[in-house]
TrEMBL record:
InterPro entries referenced in this protein's UniProt entry, alphabetically: Amino_oxidase, FAD/NAD-bd_sf, Protoporphyrinogen_oxidase, Zeta_carotene_desat/Oxidored
Pathway: Porphyrin-containing compound metabolism; protoporphyrin-IX biosynthesis; protoporphyrin-IX from protoporphyrinogen-IX: step 1/1
Domain Amine oxidase: 14-507
Function: Catalyzes the 6-electron oxidation of protoporphyrinogen-IX to form protoporphyrin-IX.
Name recorded for this polypeptide: Protoporphyrinogen oxidase
Record note on cofactor: Binds 1 FAD per subunit.
């Protein structure tokens, strides 16, 4: 480890920060290793952005509200994130949501052309009385009786769209109603474009182990993991992640965030990196000139080079070899308009208690671009993350401000009316009123914040996994073992996936 090495991380989003963080742990200053992060924007952290705003209503109630414009919650299943939280001593900043909380239990759908929300049943008794039973019950039955049907063999490169996979197993009604809504809420894209192998690799494995049926596969997996747990006892520990006692804090937790928002995590990583003598962060101009030479460089990719920055740019050359790598620009990505709205305290609740609601693809299809607001769903932030807000009301029992986030765009294209026009907010509030089933107009918001995120979520289209394997091979062949490509555009899109991929690549060098 004594010889001096040099790493260049292109991109200071979640994957880049994680890669640089783990590289700097493995190769501290005393090893003579240099680590350079190149980020074209003026800040690190990618799409994660938290902001505190002061709000006041007509009656003088005041509060400080935490708004998120990117991801807002994390899942305890990602050990790579828990490890970073532990290593950066962020445990005391955590805000957890219990599995029994309404935000974890209640999820809703709004069906286009109807008024109000439908509860997605979370138990058998709830299913039996749900209006959605007429879609859900036949869907489960259809899958359950599939025997020796076509399977996307896990070891083959076969692939299909999420919509085609759900249609095969659960029927077209389920695929459109539930499948498209789920994909709106994760990828903000059309489920007919998305690769099932990339998005739901686990479902393909269940299909195979269930001999053609995902439900049977899931049941048999549940049984075998129960058996395993019994034979191992409950004390199975994770030895490869340095998580301290944090797994204990996550018992019974459905999702979590931080009291000051998700930026707590990215700021803490960035600050730790800034403190390292051997880490340099290049923003803006320096990064822009490098980015220009990398004509295929996309925000969703992270290129990690072992070599000097100057070597990285000269070795990329002009025209850059990246343009000759296969599949770099194969995937489209979705743009999302994120609207944070804060409503004043009121005795009449704005929405039911729960996570929020999603909206499926309309029938017969998405309208042509620029003709609709294009709402994908709404998150009821106060339910899960109300603990981030600070009320200055003397009476602790008085009603609180309500924060929600409306997501628009994706497959609908840019919202119409345009968010900068005066018609936008009235149209948005009227649509929200209809979705939430209110007969009266919603109260005037105290604050509305609109952010337009261009190309923020990559869409791994059908064939993605096989294409990325070819890309990785080509990277190694052209740029050598000292180069790697990771990030949301290559692997998974969740915060956990990005942090995990940065960690993995740093450990491999
Ligand atoms: C900017 C909008 C985003 C939309 N999806 C994502 C972002 C950042 C990314 C994303 N959202 C979810 C996942 C699955 C993995 C997970 O961590 O749960 C991913 C990769 C699920 C999810 N969807 C919504 C929320 C609040 C969450 C929890 C995770 C998070 O906070 O991002 C709601 C939601 N997200 C989008 C839409 C259109 C939407 C609608 C209500 C797009």
């Amino acid at each position: 480890m004594g010889s001096s090495r040099s790493f260049t991380v292109l991109g200071g989003g979640l994957s880049g920060l994680s890669a640089a963080f783990h590289l700097s742990r493995r190769f501290p200053a005393r090893t003579g290793t240099r680590i350079t992060i190149v980020e074209k924007s003026s800040r690190l952290g990618g799409w994660v952005q938290s902001e505190r705003v002061r709000v006041k209503d007509k009656h003088g109630h005041e509060a400080e509200i935490l708004l998120e414009s990117g991801p807002r919650t994390l899942r305890p299943a990602s050990k790579a994130i828990l490890e970073i939280i532990h290593l950066l001593n962020l445990e005391s900043s955590l805000l957890t949501v219990s599995r029994n909380a309404p935000a974890a239990r209640n999820r809703f759908l709004h069906l286009p052309g109807t008024k109000g929300l439908l509860t997605i049943p979370g138990s058998l008794p709830a299913l039996l009385v749900s209006p959605l039973a007429k879609i859900l019950v036949p869907a489960m039955y259809r899958d359950f009786r599939r025997i020796n049907g076509t399977v996307l063999n896990a070891s083959s490169p076969n692939d299909e769209s999420v919509d085609a996979f759900f249609t095969r197993h659960f029927g077209p009604e389920f695929a459109r109603t539930f499948g498209s809504a789920l994909i709106h809420g994760i990828y903000a894209t059309d489920s007919r474009l998305l690769s099932v192998r990339a998005a739901f690799g686990a479902a393909c494995r269940l299909e195979e182990s269930g001999n053609g049926s995902v439900v049977r596969g899931a049941l048999s997996e549940m049984m075998s993991s129960l058996r395993k747990r019994k034979s191992q006892g409950n004390g199975a520990t994770e030895e490869t992640y340095d998580m301290g006692d944090i797994a204990h804090l996550m018992k019974g937790v459905s999702v979590y965030s931080f009291r000051d928002g998700m930026q707590t995590l990215t700021d803490a990583m960035a600050n730790r990196l800034r403190q390292q003598e051997n880490v340099e962060i290049i923003h803006g101009d320096g990064a822009a000139s490098l980015t220009k030479t990398i004509d295929g460089f996309q925000a969703s990719f992270l290129w990690l080079y072992e070599g000097q920055l100057s070597h990285a740019s000269t070795s990329l050359g002009n025209p850059s070899p990246i343009s000759s790598l296969p599949h770099v620009l194969a995937n489209p990505s979705s743009s999302v308009t994120v609207v944070n709205i804060v409503f004043p305290p009121s005795d009449t609740p704005i929405h039911p208690e729960g996570f929020g609601y999603l909206i499926p693809r309309p029938k017969p299809d998405y309208p042509s671009q620029g003709t609709t607001l294009g709402m994908l769903g709404t998150v009821f932030d106060s339910c899960s993350l109300g603990g981030q807000d600070i009320s200055f009301s003397a009476d602790r029992r008085s009603p609180k401000f309500t924060k929600v986030t409306v997501m628009l765009g994706g497959p609908y294209g840019p919202p119409s009316p345009d968010p900068s026009s005066p018609e936008f907010l009235p149209a948005l509030l009227a649509t929200l009123q209809q979705h939430l089933g209110h007969s009266e107009p919603l109260p005037e918001p105290c604050l509305v914040r609109v952010r337009q995120h261009r190309d923020c979520i990559p869409t791994p289209t059908v064939g993605h996994v096989a294409r990325m394997a070819e890309l990785r091979k080509a990277v190694q062949k052209k740029l050598g073992q000292g180069a790697a490509v990771i990030g949301a555009g290559v692997g998974g899109v969740s915060v956990g996936d990005c942090i995990e991929s940065g960690r993995r690549v740093a450990m491999e060098f």
